Structure formats: structure tokens, C-alpha cells
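Ops channel
N.P.: pipeline sanity check, posting one input/output pair.
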């Protein structure tokens, strides 16, 4: 009934029911990860080849298959005139590149302008037809150690920032052994993913060494806790080395979508978890079981748009998708054709049930 492309480049479709009812949002990101070295692919990454019961190609699992299933599900509800409330289908931008940039604009502006607040959000990130309920948060931090340049032929005249980073790295590795765990979301983690020195000239002792740190965290952990843990490591090193200087900060990036929409954003995504006891979760499980499916409850290891929707906004959010996480972001990217049909049917029945009957 309505199709709109907002300023950020998100695409929103709306099917409006005949009377008041619930609103469900089917939400999937439009972008894909880079294909990488095409020689490593079993099949052409942009070929869209059907073989062996699968549709092969970049983004098939994460999450082009889900986009197809959600669109057909909404269309089926429209044709069957099953909808009393609103069925929303959204494709959002910059999920792979940025921290929920598209979803944040969708909710804060596009849906708010239409006075739409979904009672249930269904994410299309890979779940293999299971029901996913959340994931850990993600923060990308930068630790900088500060030294003094000199010519590399006389290193004693300088202060090598790379050497000053060594005890910091050891402290981060030790921190990783003491992080908390969650019975469903698994363990918090910390990992150094990149090291860089400046200046980059071969014959210059670097006066800056920057370590990029990936931190996965639980709902019980705050951003202040995460940064203070790293600051404690710096303080401990400084107590033993009077020449040591170091800083820790959340990484900031400027992102621009294909429409030219630009924002500076922190590289942080919230942890979130929808309870198994939430009535909508129970309703989804019963509906899928009635169709012969036996979905398990599980979580993602990577981050999704649920960080903003389920974490920041605290909206009831689940994942249900034909894609499988083991194929996503790999040269074997694919989706089962049978799962596409099952996901479309399951999503259609779930959407119509939520909009028609609501929940207890």
C-alpha cells in the first residue's frame, strides 16, 4: 500500500490492514560483505546459480534469501486479505559497514514520522529456520601508546611506541581469561585485531602505536566497564614504567550511504536478549511447530540490527530466516531453496497471526 525510500536509503513497504491491529516489522539489511578473492569461490559469487538444492552467490545466506522470503510472506498476507494491522517490510542500509546506521534512521525518523511502532520485529539474519533471540554486544576500541621519534640507526635517541605496546597486549590477553559468561549468550571476549605504527617510514622509530581491539560483551556489562578495564591495564603498565603514556578510546567513523546521507558514529553495538518467556516468542514457536517445523532457540555470534531494535529500543525482537550462519561471509555462501519456501510460509503465518490476533 505504501513504498518509500528514506533519506538514508532504507526501503520501507507497508501493508495496511482493514482495522486496528498489531504491527509487525520484517527487517533485513540490504548490503553484503565483500566477495574477497573470487578464485576461492566454488561458484561465481555474482552468478545466482541454482545447484544441488541451493541458490549460490554472495549474500544468499546473509541475507538476500531472507529478503525474498519476507517479501513473499508479506505478499501472501496481502493476497489472502489476512491482515488487520500493519505488516512492514524494511531493507536497511549499512549493516555490514556501520553500527545500525540504517535501522537507527528507520526507527527514529521514517517510522516515527508515520507513528508506527512495531509490536514484534523479525530479523532476516541467518538462523537456519530456528528462532534466534539475541547476541552479545560489540565495541571497537583503539589503544594508543605514545613514544618519541628518532632515526632507526640510533634507536636509543627515541622512544619506541611499538615496544611500549607489548605489556599492554599481554594485559589484554590476560583480561580475556577473566571475562564473564552467560548461560545463553556464551562468553564475553576481547581480541586485538590490528596493529599499526606511525610514522610508517622504514627508517623512523615510531612515536605512535595503535592497537584495534574487538570487545564482545554481555547485557550485564556497560561501556564504562569495558573502557575502564582497558584503562586499568594502561595504569598498571604506567605504574611500572615512568616513560609510558597510553590512551584508550571508542573508535569513531564517518559513514556515507549511497544517497549521500552522512553520519559520524561510534563503533558500538548493544547486547540484547529477548526472553524465551515473552508471549510473542511463545506464539512464534507454537505457530512454526503447527506447520511441522521444530525450531530451536539460539543466538548469533555476530552482531545484527537487533542491537538497536532489541537492545537500544528494547522492542520484542527475534530472528527467523532461511539462511545458515555457517555459510554467511564465506566463499560457500548459499541458501537452501527448500528453506526459502519454508521461511516464506512460516513468516506469512507468523505475521498474519500477530496482526490478526495479537498476543496475550
Amino acid at each position: 500500500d505504501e513504498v518509500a525510500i528514506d533519506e538514508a536509503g532504507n526501503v520501507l513497504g507497508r501493508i495496511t490492514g482493514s482495522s486496528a491491529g498489531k504491527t509487525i516489522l520484517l527487517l533485513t539489511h540490504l548490503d553484503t560483505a565483500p566477495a574477497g578473492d573470487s578464485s576461492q569461490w566454488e561458484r561465481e559469487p555474482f552468478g545466482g546459480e541454482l545447484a544441488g538444492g541451493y541458490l549460490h552467490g554472495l549474500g544468499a545466506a546473509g541475507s538476500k534469501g531472507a529478503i525474498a522470503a519476507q517479501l513473499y510472506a508479506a505478499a501472501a498476507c496481502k493476497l489472502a486479505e489476512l491482515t488487520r494491522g500493519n505488516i512492514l517490510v524494511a531493507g536497511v542500509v549499512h549493516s555490514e559497514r556501520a553500527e545500525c546506521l540504517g535501522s537507527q534512521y528507520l526507527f527514529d525518523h521514517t517510522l516515527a514520522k508515520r507513528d508506527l511502532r512495531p509490536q514484534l520485529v523479525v530479523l532476516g539474519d541467518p538462523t537456519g529456520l530456528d528462532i534466534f533471540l539475541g547476541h552479545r554486544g560489540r565495541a571497537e576500541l583503539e589503544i594508543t601508546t605514545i613514544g618519541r621519534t628518532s632515526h632507526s640507526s640510533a634507536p636509543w635517541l627515541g622512544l619506541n611506541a611499538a615496544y611500549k605496546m607489548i605489556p599492554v597486549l599481554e594485559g589484554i590477553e590476560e583480561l580475556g581469561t577473566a571475562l564473564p559468561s552467560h548461560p545463553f549468550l556464551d562468553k564475553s571476549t576481547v581480541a586485538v585485531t590490528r596493529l599499526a605504527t606511525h610514522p610508517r617510514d622504514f627508517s623512523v622509530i615510531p612515536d605512535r602505536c595503535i592497537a584495534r581491539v574487538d570487545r564482545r560483551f554481555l547485557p550485564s556489562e556497560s561501556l564504562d566497564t569495558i573502557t575502564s578495564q582497558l584503562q586499568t591495564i594502561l595504569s598498571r603498565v604506567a605504574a611500572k614504567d615512568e616513560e609510558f603514556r597510553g590512551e584508550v578510546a571508542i573508535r569513531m567513523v564517518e559513514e556515507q550511504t549511497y544517497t549521500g546521507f552522512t553520519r559520524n558514529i561510534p563503533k558500538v553495538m548493544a547486547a540484547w536478549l529477548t526472553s524465551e518467556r515473552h508471549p510473542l516468542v511463545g506464539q512464534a514457536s507454537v505457530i512454526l511447530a503447527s506447520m511441522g517445523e521444530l525450531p530451536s532457540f539460539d543466538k548469533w555470534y555476530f552482531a545484527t540490527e537487533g542491537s538497536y531494535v532489541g537492545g537500544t529500543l528494547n522492542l520484542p525482537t527475534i530472528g527467523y530466516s532461511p539462511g545458515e550462519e555457517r555459510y554467511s561471509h564465506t566463499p560457500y555462501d548459499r541458501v537452501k531453496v527448500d528453506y526459502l519456501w519454508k521461511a516464506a510460509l512460516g513468516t506469512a503465518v507468523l505475521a498474519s497471526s500477530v496482526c490478526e490476533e495479537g498476543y496475550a
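N.P.: looks fine end to end. The chain has a mean pLDDT of 94.
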